[in-house]
Amino acid sequence: MNRLDRLSLTPVPPEDEALRAPVRAFLAEQLHGLPALRRARSWSGHDAAFSRALAARGWLGLTLPLEHGGAGRSPFARYVLVEELLNAGAPVGAHWIADRQSGPLILKYGTPAQQQRYLPAICRGEAFFCIGMSEPGAGSDLASVRTRAERQADGRWRLNGQKVWTTHAHQSHFMIALVRSSGAPEDRQAGLSQLIVDLSLPGVTVRPITDLSGDQHFCEVFFDDVMLAPEALVGREGQGWAQVTAELAYERSGPERLYSSIVLFDEWLAWVRTPTGRSDAALALAGRIAAQLAPLRALSLAVTARLAAGDSPVVEAALVKDLGTSVEQLIPALIADDLASRPDGCEPPAELLLTLAYISQVAPSFSLRGGTRDILRGMIARGLGLR
Questions:
Q1: Which residues of 284-318 are buried (b: 16+ CB within 10 A; e: fewer)?
Q2: Which residue, 7, 81, 2, 1, is CA-closest to 298?
Q3: How would you class 32 by CB atoms within 10 Å of its CB: exposed for 0-12, middle for 13-18, buried for 19 or more?
Q4: Sign (positive/negative) of CA torsion 22, 24, 27, 29?
Q5: CA nearest to 174, candidates 117, 91, 248
């Protein structure tokens, strides 16, 4: 038996599928007239007002318990919600990390005081989080982090170091940072802990990084003698590696690993449905892309079932992420080839060309964010007993 035997075809339960219609109606109203070029940014798009509109309908913290302000729904309900948000190109970046990872992490490992403080605020759209994992010279090799938190005599933590590629740090209230609380980088996974960092504290400096498209959602974050209260520690000291590994299963298996290019695909399909855009080659290409998305979605749902059962399918999530980002990168390349093959005088819509240009610029990052391809394939090989 190997790990893939545990992934079986999994339908969305009817009670969760029923969420799709009201979400679509809400999005049709909220996103009316928003151009594809804006919608293509989706989970890199930051709109706090939109996130709070979702919260007002009870759609933030959907899986968190009622006593913490959540809706107490299943992971499948959140899957439906996220799938609709991404397919529509909704600007979900403001609440994205808090809803997907930070909330569940605090629920699982946090103290009652941490849960009481942060979870209701996440559900109200009033606490936005970022993730402090990557560092200069470390990248996806999280075990080599050098940012250090030293416990002081009064129980507080003194934090020094640097994080990089931290999405929306400049617009977030808190970071959950993976830090070295004992030992040296050579100790690898030993001596790592997770801390909640209030990004408004003295000693924290956040600098946005402008990417090729002109957007600023990645950041570098510096910690210079930042003093954190004793209760900033999440879970147990020294258990950060196990905690962050489990957390990454949420990040790597969701619909966001399939649909980064979906607004472009839909915009192209809309043109292919017109007499000008229709061609035999385009119809065949549409089928080819759909044929790759369908099994990926089934695989992603199968991992969701494992998460719903309380498992931590780290290797299976890595597989979804690796396959999903490959398809996400393939879509703009295939559409570009199709448009380039058109005869002279066949002019695609300007919005389609602008959206293609944007997705083509950011697509190389799809296989970097959330774990590089090499790291993920090493995890998969290890999970299959090949390393």
A1: ebbeebeebbeebbebbbbbbbbbbeeebbbbbbb
A2: 7
A3: exposed
A4: negative
A5: 117
The answer on pLDDT for 132 being more than 60 is yes
Helices 314-340 and 350-362: crossing angle in degrees, nearest 10, is: 140
Phi-psi region of 165 (alpha: psi -120 to 50; beta: other; left: phi over 0): left
pLDDT tens for residues 133-185?
889 877 667 777 899 999 999 999 999 999 998 999 999 999 999 999 987 77
Instruction: Write the single-letter amino acid at 182.
Output: S
Interval 277-321: pLDDT, tens: 999 999 999 999 999 999 999 999 998 888 888 887 888 888 889
219 phi, psi to nearest 5 deg:
-145, 160
Of the chain, the end-to-end C-alpha distance in Å amounts to 17
User: H or E element: which one contains 19?
Assistant: none
Contact of 233 with 194, CB cutoff 8 Å:
yes
Catalytic residue among 251, 256, 316, 328: 251
Q: What tokens does 324 get?
A: 């999903």
Please indicate whether residue 251 is annotated as part of the active site. Answer: yes
